[in-house]
Each structure stands twice: as C-alpha cells, then as structure tokens.
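TEACHING EXERCISE
Course module: macromolecular assemblies
Task: Read the component lines below, then compare them to the predicted structure of the full complex.
Student: A.B.
Group: 4
Components provided:
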Amino acid sequence: MKTVLMVAEKPSLAQSIAKILSKGNCTSRKGLNGACSVLEYTGSFQGQTVRFKMTSVCGHVMSLDFIGKYNNWDKVDPAELFSQAPTEKKEANPKLNMVKFLQVGLRAIDPVFYILSHNIDGYSSLASQVLDAIQPVMNKGSVREQSVYRAKFSSITDTDIWNAMNRLGEPNRNEALSVDARQELDLRIGCAFTRFQTKYFQGKYGNLDSSLISFGPCQTPTLGFCVERHDKIQSFKPETYWVIQAKVFKGKDSPLTLDWHRVRVFDREVGQMFVNLAKTSREAQVESVSKKEKAKQRPQALNTVEMLRVASSALGMGPQHTMQIAERLYTQGYISYPRTETTHYPENFDLKGALKQQINNCIWAEEVKALLSTGLNRPRKGTDAGDHPPITPMRAASEAELGSDGWRLYEYITRHFIATVSQDCMYLQTTIDFKIGTEAFSCSGKTLVSAGYTALMPWQGIPLEEAMPTCEHGDTYTVDEIKLVEKQTSPPDYLTEAELITLMEKHGIGTDASIPVHINNICQRNYVTVENGRKLKPTNLGIVLVHGYYKTDAELVLPTIRSAVEKQLNLIALGKANFQQVLQHTLDIFKRKFHYFVDSIPSMDELMEVSFSPIAATGKPLSRCGKCHRFMKYIQAKPSRLHCSHCDETYSLPQNGAIKLYKELRCPLDDFELVLWTSGARGKSYPLCPYCFSNPPFRDMKKGMGCNECTHPSCQHSLNSYGIGQCVECESGVLVLDPTSGPKWRMACNKCNVVVHFFEHAHRVQVAQESCDACDASLVAVDFNKTRTPLPAGETQHTGCVFCDPVFQNLVELKHATMRHPRGGGARRGGRGRGRGRRGNPKKPKDKMAALAAYFV
DNA sequence: GCAAGGTC
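Instructor-supplied answer key:
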C-alpha cells in the first residue's frame, strides 16, 4: 500500500483534519520532537487505497537572521544591514528539530504529499519551508516537486476539508516569495534603525530609561497611536459653551429635564437671546410623542481581538496575559482554539451540545435551560476568515479548578457564547418633543421590553431609568425652570488598550497573534506605561521618539508605512512583480530614509535634550579610569555603565545587580580600578575590570566576563587565583571562591547559578596552590575563629579538598541544585584534562610573563 | 542586545 504524507501548519490543525478525513478512525502518536503528532489512517487517494500519514509543523520552521559577524553592534555600520549584510535561514525553534522530523517522515513515504493550510501566510511559510527542509531528500529522487499538492480550505468543517481534498492545487512559489520578502524587509529595516538610534542616544544621554530603543514597522506605529492621543490631550484648549437647561412638570409628576435641540452655542449673548425667546412662554407644548421598539443586537461569535478588547476594558487583563490564560484554558480543554479571526460558527457546529455543557452552572443555568427548551436563536452572520471556529467553551468548569483569572476569562467567554444564541435585547424608545416659546426641546428614554442576551451580559443592558410619562400631542407642561448654563469642553483621555487594539486592527498593524506582542513591546521598552483603567500613557522617551520621527520623516511612524509595503508584497504574491525587484526597490527607499534620518538626527536630538541629561552630567563618581586616572561616573539608569568624561568613553557593566568599588584594587593589565558586581536575590558577586569586561584581554575570553572568568595566569583576582573546581551542575563552569563573601563563605559557579555555601565563622579562606589527588580540585586553606571552630579538638586551621576531605565535606551546602560531585574518596571522574579552569591546565606556567604574552590576543 | 510572524 502506498503512503501519503500530509503536513498541516500546526498540531491542532493536524488533529482536527485527520479526525474529519478518517471519520474518527485514526491512530495517533507523538512525533520525535514531542510537540507534533503523527496521525495515521487508511483511505482512498486517486482511486487507490492508501495509508495516510498526517502530521504538522509547529509555527514557522525557519526564521531569518544576519550571518554571525553582522550581529556585532560595535563593528558593523547599521547602514550595511540594508544590502551588504548577508542573511541566513535558521531553524526557528531548534529544540523542535523540525527539519529532521520532516525529513524522517518523508523518507518513509511514496512520492506524494500534501500541504494543508488556510491562509496565504500560513500556507506559504509552510509550503516553502517544508519544501526547503526536505530538499536534500527530494533530490535523492524519492519525492519530486510535482508530487507535492496543496489543499486549501476556508474553514475546518467536513464539507470544506473534503472539498479541498477533491480539488488539490499546486504550491504557489510566488506567495511564498512574498512572505520571504516581508521577512527580509522587516529584519533589515527594523534592525538598522534600532541599532542606530540605540547606539546614538545611549552614548549621549545618561538617564534614558530604556536599554534598547527599538524601531519596527508594527511597534512604531503602535506607539504612534498612543502619542497621537497624548498630543491631542496636550494641545487641547478648553472652550466655553452654553446650553439651555429646561425643566418642566405636569400635575404632581416629578419634573422632566429636557434636551435643547440646538444642543449648545459658543456665544453667551446668543445663548441669552434664545433663553429670552423661550422665556416668552410659561408653558411647554407637547409637539409629538413617538414610541419605537428597538433592538440591541446579540453579539457575533467571539474572535481573538474582541476577546482581548473585553479582557482589557472589562476584566482589566492585558492582552499578553489574556493570551497566556487563554492558551492554558485551551490546552486543558476548557475552551476552543483561542487564536482566530473568525466570528461565524461553522454550519455543522454543535451549538446545542456546547450549550448543554453549561446546564449545571448555577450562574447561568436558568438562561441555558430556558434556551434549550424554547430553542436556540440563530447566531448572527459573522465573517469566516477560514482559520478556526470562534472561541467557545468546550466543557463545564468551576472557579475552583480554573483559578481567579482563568475563571474570569472563561466566564466571559461562556457568557459571550450563550449570548450569541440568545434573543436580542428589546426596548422601547420614547421621545417627546416640546416647544417652549420658539425653542424646541425633547426628552427621551428607554424602557426594557425583554432583556434577551443582556441577561448574560448585564454590562450591556439598558439602564433602569425613570419611566417616561404618558402624554400626547397637544398636552401642556408648566415650565419649572429655564436658564443658561455655562460649560466647558473637556479633553479626551489617554488611549485605552481596547481602543488601541481597534486602531491596530483597522490599520492592519499586526495580527490576532501578534497584536499583544507589539503592545507588550512598547511597554517593555518603556515607551508607554499602563495606567489605571488600562490606559496607555506615553513616557517622555516614547513622546520624544514619535515627535522626532514627525520632525524628520513622519512616514516612519504613520500606519501607512506598513500598508504601502504590503501592497508591493501583494504584487509578488500575485506574480505581478519580481521578488528581487520589489525587495531591492523597497530596501533602496528605506536605505535613503535611513541616511536622511541619520543626517537629521540633530533635529531629533533637540527634543531629546529637553527631556534627558547628557551622559557627562549623569551619574556619580565611582572608580578610576585606567587611561587618565580620573574618576569615572557610574550611571545607574538602564543600561547601567561607567562613563569617563575626560576620555569620553563608556564602559558597559553587568546588568540587574548592584555595582560597588572593589577595595580600590586595579587590574594589572590596564590599570582600571576593579568594581564589584552583586546580584540582589542570589547573593552572588564577583569583581570585574570595566575595561576587560568590554574588551576581552585574552583570546579565550569573551565580552561580558568578570575576574571570575579571567584566565590571567598570575593576577590575584583571576579565575586562576580563586578557582576551586568544576561546577557540580553545568558543563563548562568553574566554582570560584567569592573573596567578599566572608564570614559566611561561599563559592559560585562562573557560568550558571550554582552557589555553594561552605565555611561559616572563618576569618580567612584561601585557595591553595595544591590540588586534590582524588578530584583535582584546588585545596582550600581555612582559618576558623577560636571560639566557634567546627574542627575537632578546637583546631582553627585546616587545609583540604572541599569535596573530598572528610572534615570539610559536612560543611559544604549546595544551593539551587543537588550535589553530583563525587564525595569522600570517590573515584576520579570527568573534568580532568578537559581544559577547564585552573585544574584543567595541569602544568603550571614556569615563566609567567611568557605565558601572559601567549595569552594576549 | 535588533523586526515580525507563527506556536509550545
């Protein structure tokens, strides 16, 4: 029997499609990467009985990046990223081993396979990436491109999937190319601008509150929306206006407040004139009474962006958090797939079944029972984007099993679902038109007829109002009060997250899956902060950036920046434009924009100067520069660094910790004063030389290394002086004595988070020259306090191996990990001669200076 | 350390 391979774009799709095509009769097993399943069944293909093997990829197989050397920010001019810098495709998620998984899957089949997908983007990335991945296998002749088919469907329903199978198409290289082009454009443009502006502003200002000043075709317009609203608020000038306030009554009824038909006037004199005209009459005549029954429509089925909007505005949950919760609810089987643009239930969707699941939940049991007995209302027609069915509850749940936020989101999704099959909300709108003198007024009110779906979504309900009086044309009311009231227009408020989502959706910025990411980005980069009511308030940095773009090249921040490029890309997909030409043309435009931006940066700088202080004026003196021997300033704002204003040089420092001066000791290589880095929580610390940290002195050292990784053969602060032995957990780390840790002495791995506590109440701990015969670790000499020594017979001094010495063993306590190191006379084990740390280099250098020279780059 | 896009 022949075997046909089918590849869907994600595991959930493979599952549901295999279920449909096999009519529920398929076997399922996990693939070698643990994420994708392989589903098998027997069926018919082109008139033959064949074995179908259905599997999937898991998002994109490949992603694009620059080749290694172009990722060095210091050595590459960002302008080179537009053309010179070569890119390469890398496996998007190496852990999944997708390429190997596909190749193995393919080897076992006969030369036919399908690619299944619902949208162009998904399809193209899938098709081209799968084809690329299996190219080596294809060349061996087992599969030719002609035997690759594409099944394109617009919804995951029996009919649609079967139709797709019966009308197989061919992969479309153009669509794939258009996706490739977008990827390359986003990468080159985004990275070039990000690197340039980050480096430029970071080198100039000391109190920028962001370590990365990013730019991107989605995130920047997203920020633009927030700043646009900020500008409206700032430039808002309140205007005074006047309204006529009129109250009338009839008999003993309570008075009615009327709305003026002219609404308002901006001139007091004019307003007064109208009041005078109205005051000519003491009575209000009822001109007409209208009563209309109106409907408030039940909601459409729920898609992702609507869920995100409501979660933000009503539940106070941010989009990123909401998606995490939704993902969890989905994998636990409580709700359907949470990423969808579709607001239309598939034809065969079992609405009743889904509703029945909810019959025992006391919150909505009554409504559910009523619906099941009277019949479900037909859901409103929505749009079918062809991706996944709308978001619906899949099984009953309780607050206890879901946890607070999980339950709140589930509750909303369920209420929304029930609402979609409920009746519309019906109400009566009554409007009474009055005339007082020459002026027309009216008053209107809504009375609930039937709550319909608002019983489940009470926040959308008709507010209870005082009933409208019964009256008819010709009735007369007495004027109780009529006066001119002065009011002021008020500014708009900051953009809410929900409004931002709407704007992004409208302008095609991001997708259902990426909108939360972009919003999260502008928060993390400190461009906006989330205020009460999930309103997004731009920071100084965010405002200055956007104003700067407006000043130099507004297109960089306008939402059209994306749509213009999209148009070009679309031409590639349609085969009307050439991939290379569009890519070159667009890159050319943006390269010019980039150079113009670089040239105009001084005008953006004028804005920065107002909000931020120059680096030389920031920070406090901390340690001495090795070149000019003047004090350098420590700039605490992220990214924390040292700045020598005399040399005009900036030296980076390790982040997320505190920096202190380290006993005024100096690095023997460059004379810079050492500083001590201390992490807060873990209590790990090590000294470092500010110069070596950015400019590694030896060939086996990399940027960002402290003295605890320094291979200097003789320096008293180096790994060679304080290194004790191999890390007990990680492969390449060395446990290094922390010379500042006393009196509770400890050693810490110079690569991972392992910290080993050893001697308490010791006033001196030293790493000896000798090493342990059993495990090769350096011996440690300890001097305990006389009164609190743990040594037998009140001894105060002892030298031994911390791992093997019977006296020391019990004093060693490993934190964050379990001990794997051989203890007490155990056999020798790995590490010897692996070239690690001090003990990996068994021969001690005879001539220290010669060794030193050999080390230099 | 950069983009945006999928998904786990």
